[in-house]
Design brief:
By secondary structure, the protein is an all-alpha fold. The chain has 1 helix and no strands. It is rod-shaped and about 65 Å long. The mean pLDDT is about 85.
């Protein structure tokens, strides 16, 4: 009988860990996407600055 009472508690703990893992994965994906997007935005602004400075516009 004690085993049946302990099972839901263990299940809740497993669910919490699963949610934490999903949240961590989402955070990693957001960090990678933000880094990539930031690099691309920097490249665009660099091209705009070069063009406005009289350099070659591409």
């Amino acid at each position: 009988m004690k085993f049946r009472l302990a099972l839901p508690r263990q299940q809740r703990g497993a669910t919490a860990i699963e949610y934490a893992l999903v949240a961590a994965l989402i955070a990693i994906v957001i960090a990678v996407a933000a880094t990539t997007l930031g690099t691309q935005i920097t490249a665009v602004f660099t091209r705009i600055t070069t063009c406005l400075s009289g350099g070659a516009c591409t």
